[in-house]
Amino acid sequence: MKIMVIGGGGREHAIIKSIKKNPLVDKIYALPGNGGIAMDAECIDIGATDLDKIVDFAKSKDIDYAIVAPDDPLVMGLVDLLEDEGIPSFGPSKAAAIIEGSKAFSKELMKKYGIPTAEYEIFSDVDSAYSYIESCNIPVVVKADGLALGKGVIIAETRDEAKAAIKSIMEDKAFGKSGDTIVIEEFLEGPEVSILSFTDGNTLVPMVSSMDHKRALDGDKGLNTGGMGTIAPNPYYTEEIAEICREEIFLPTMIAMNREGRRFKGCLYFGLMITKDGPKVIEYNCRFGDPETQVVLPLLESDLLDIMLHVTNESLDQAEVVFSDGAACCIVMASEGYPASYEKGFEINLPENMDSIFIAGAKTSSQGKLVTSGGRVLGITETADTLKEAVNKAYEKVKSVHFDNAFYRKDIGKKALDV
User: Fold this and answer.
1) Lowest CB count within 10 Å: 102, 166, 293, 378, which one?
2) pTM, whole model, 2 decimals?
3) How far is the C-alpha of 162 from the C-alpha of 214, rounded, in Å?
4) Which tens digit of pLDDT belongs to each residue from 253-298?
């Protein structure tokens, strides 16, 4: 099989390393990929949102199967375009990807179908939003409606901070048209849990739970990032909580999308908070999370490509989906200054064994060297029988990787180990 994977980050590298294990795979193309992914696939310099060029490339290479990993091309409808050309694909249609593409849509969906989430109001008029802030409970969470690279969410501790968030998103257009509409919701408290799931619209199979570490600095301090590390499984996600989520959140969401004529096929991500009133949905994503994918897939004992094909063919109930009983820890090594400004172009020295290293922000220099090109440079994942062992192994592996201006959190997994 000739496979095409859309995207160029650590998530895509983890997916490619997993599907390479399938003996049916002859060739993998990554569009655009990156300097590290080039070790495992042929990288093609076509951007993930250049839909027409992607479709033309797929046709020219007689691609047998496409995996669309990032949110933007999914929300833009790439899967629809590929399937219109007879190229089967993993990922939701444009109609289904709206569950991430519009926070207002997802909140209204949850309200309509009784899926537990934070109380909220939706505003497209800036004056109405300012007026609401004068009387609502504080703190609140202000969210841009559309996609914003994971950065369109602001927790406001005071009314002035809430007004500043509204101004930034709606008036200053910090996230462009994504901020034409905003959602203001109540601030929930409790441990967060990430659940990726396979679903074909008939069957939904949750993957192993994980815990992300969003803040840049130790002790959950500093700016929000795309994720500085993850562990799996998440100790707060007990069997009892899992059953509640399945009956009150996971299956009702799948059914709700079907009833709305937006059948979801692909990876549906549930961002949850375990509040004193039970689990509630913070957000949906229409794809694999990053860096969650980098701890979840190494624990998958079944064949990833086989599962994906079953999802596409709407036969997920016939697929084997088995995860290890062990644990995994992923530590993200980033460029000093991320997520703000940072220098690029530093050579990356890697160990011989690259099995557990997923490259995100790196490119091949004109001298043929692998150099840094992004904020999050790579993720290092290790698995073990226990979380403590996995954490220790991951931090030991970090010592074998070097690039100038590197930084990483020293406390990934600490909160989970303290539970």
Assistant:
1) 102
2) 0.96
3) 21
4) 999 999 999 999 999 999 999 999 999 999 999 999 999 999 999 9
